Amino acid sequence: MKLTFATLLLLLSAVSWGQTVTSQEISGLIQDISGSAVPNVTVTVKNGETGFIRTAQANESGYYVVSNLPIGTYELSVEVKGFKKFVNTGLVLNVNSKLQANVRLEVGNVTESVTVAADAVQVETATGEVGRLVTGEQATNLQLNGRNFPQLLQLLPGVSTTFSSGFGLFGGYGVNNSAQSINGSRTDTFSWNLDGADNKDNGGGGNNFVNINPDAIAEFKVLTTNYSAEYGNSAGAVVNIAIRGGTKEFHGGAYEYLRNDAIQARAYNATIKPELRYNNFGVNLGGPAFIPKIFNTSKDKFFFFGGLDFKRLRQGAINTWTVPSPAQINGDFSALGAAKWPKDPLTGAVFPNGIIPQNRFSANSYRLLQNYPAPNFTGSGGNFVFPTVAPLSTNQYILKGDYNVNSKNQISVHWLRDYYESLQNLTNLALYERHIPGTNAAAHWTFVANASTVNSVQFSFTGNVIKEKVGIRANTLFVNDFSRKGEGVNYPLIYNAADFIPSISISGFNGLSVTPLNFDNFNRVFQWKDDFSKLIGNHNLKAGMMAMRSRKNQDNVPAINGSFAFSTSASNTTTNALADALLGNFYTYTEAGSFRQGWYRFTQVEPYVQDDWKVNSRLTVNLGLRWEYMQPQYSALNNTSAFLPQYYNPAKAPQIVRSTGAIVQGTGDPYNGLVLGGNGFPDAAKGRVPVASDPAVLALFHNLPKGTAQTYNATWAPRIGFALDLSGHQNTVVRGGFGAFYERIEGNFIFSSVNNAPFIQQSTVYNGNVENPSGGALQVFPAAVNNSHYLDMKVPRTLNWSLGVQQKLTKDTMLDVAYVGSSAANLSYQQDINQLPLGTALANPGVNVNALRPYPGYADIYEYMTGANFIYNSLQVQFKKQLAGGGMFNAAYTWSKSRTDANGYNYQPMDSYNLRGDWGPSSYNRNHVLALSYVYPLPFWKLGREWYKVAFGGWQVSGVTTLQTGLPFNVTIPTDTAGTGLTNQRPNVIGAWQGPTRTQFLAPAAFATPAAGTFGNLGAYAIYYPFFNNWDVSVQKTFRATDRINLAFRAEFFNVPNHLSYTGISSTYTSSTFGQITGATDPRTMEFALRLTF
Fold first, then answer.
1. Domain TonB-dependent receptor plug: where (predicted)?
2. How far apart are CA 97 and CA 223, in angstroms?
């Protein structure tokens, strides 16, 4: 083994290699009937659908490997003088599969042949990794709610989903791909690859740059544990998706899926059904590209696949608001009763009869209040009910080409464009459109140097653009014009950065928000990968490297149009917030003066070596090592700041007014403890960073790393696995392994750092009047630092291990049972380093918390740290059976336990000084999950023109049933009983918490407010939602137009029994609705489809 790894390291020092999209392989031993090796034999594999042929040479031990093969069904043949020709047909090579096909040669004439057919299911005898396959047939035959393919992951062992409806995966920024966890890992730790090209948005919470429709998926494999050192850039699962390709025969289809509210059941607690219109339609075509008598005349050289997919959704919602009455907007509060009449702030006396004279109104404020609609509803929850309809459309375009240049060279390219468009802010006074064109494109070249040496190179370009400064217009439900001039609003602005009316919030009523400008994003990722493989003896060696460069420009738009808050906390209050608004007496007015933009960058390089060692005919050992260089993201403008305690000087702390917490003007250094990364602003910052020439800001540079984060290099990731064929007949295999994996910290930790001082230009005025906001008290209060991070953040690391048995029960049935475990360290979370020690606020009555902080001059200081952990243990069982006629049955069961002290990258513990106090169940893990899926073509009357065969033949039933325990959730209290200045605290539990009825899930009497100066005894996420079950069924009738053309009508039923599983619970203790069910899964939903295939 020393020689093996020395050889690998020597190769790596001379040439660069990396992972490849065509990482599938067929290997095996060639022996005669006595079991003796037959050496130096040529092995030929052929894909009958494309005509692709590859040969390999067996070594002295009779061991052969045909590597870097495209997915497909192959025929393997061996011809040796003195032996009968051997042919093995039906070898199905799936994504990332390492198929073992041993050869037994019989003595005879080469003109004779022995043909064997591969079984429908195969145990994995060449690798110890845990990977789960989802076929293209499953993707198209199983009903998918919204046809969002990530739902298919719930059919696999080890997966715990956090969504209640697949249709709900339509997110604000594309399809949500972070709604599931695998093996206890966080939901944003997946790696998504399209034909080998990275598709993950590293700053998008796990979303992908592009979605792909199920009809364009050939298959995909989810590598969950102990996978090869070929794969990195993820501490969770790796999802490798293979795009459909062309074959020697043309194939394709067209489809239309539709649903509307007329055939849907009513949602939980809904009085009416909101509007729903959904259409998903598309076409696809694949085949050979040829020019008769000129190019590809044999139709085995060049193939193409193209697809179009379109979605059109209009999804309604019923909104309930609390709004002022017309009388109140005109100053008449008499209906409230004398005890609640507003008081004149000038005299302290109640306005006569509760009516405010109109000559006291603020003209600007009164004009803004006219935008409130009049009440139209009497009942609980509000007095104004209105519908909104959210339009959303997606356009998807896919092109793929495969070119078999010759026996030594193959080229593959793909281009996928996904365009997402939606209308946003439907309950806002200003609407805007969100446009997100995403791209995933790659070119891949495989070169076969000789029968034992293969090299593959891939370059990919991925990314998206998010544009939100388009389609800005007034929401005519409220206003016809939101400009200051159009609305007749003319109060003086502080910065004059926008000509839009301000947002207003009034205690006791829904606010009127105006967000006319939102952020734009331009994200591009360039990735290069190269992979070299060489068979030396019984060692299948690989060495490779991946290099990635990410460029993301993203801006941030603060409230440049201003925002008024009316509250009885104002010093000039009438004791009624709405009356304050009429007079124009606000509590706070906030206005910002500029946009902020970050140019975010990072480089990532990951070399690896891998040795798949065929120890003997029954044992394979997988050894690998990967090193992952992950440069922390930074802004190329050097305009992100962080608070580092070592740079805070107590002598420069400001004086704090103990009663109010305000900073005494003229005292202290406003940037005390803040630092900037790099050694100065680049030229590009001029004109983009307003404070780039400010000497006080320039003094914050201390030659720290860009992004104020050190690069952590101790990221060695060893991998080891084994597969032992107990009988030698590929029926029973024991498999296991161990591996280390690393995950890039999500980019949001740096993206919001542009909102910290000194880059935020924003003023907050207290206790003023709308007619002249800047005339109020311009008080400076300690600001919160919500997005800081430590200098020495480590890269999160996950360890995985597994041991299991695969048993082939029959040629089409397999059982897989495994113990799978994992643990993680260095996970990110947010610690408030300026939290008060326990009981501090209670020991200082009448003193504002900001006067008691460890770092005076600041409010909360949330630092991203990397010290959280999780541990996961599970039993995972999968039963698979292939049925005649293309049917299948799959059962996946997981029994698991997952514990963590931080459930997400920005998790904030109850006590920042005791992270381990939040150790408890992972919020994204279900302890028991059983997922059943099936496709059953009825076996009779498939052919024939008789009327009864036409009517009753060609039917297919498919379905997905999910039975699982509920997710854990947190119970909180709304007050700071611990005296720490924070309110994310938990109560005491003093009895059995189960409620008396299904809808009163929690018993309020079982909880109590902790004693002053203490934390509650209820653990984090210690209570679980109720049991969850869902039954989806599809019925399909196929009409055969010709031998090749089929037309299928499908009726799909989601939640067919219309059984509701509860998904929302009022969990704030002391709330009037505490413990009550507030939400449930979608009601029964019907969808019809028509599919033409040929």
1. 143-237
2. 11
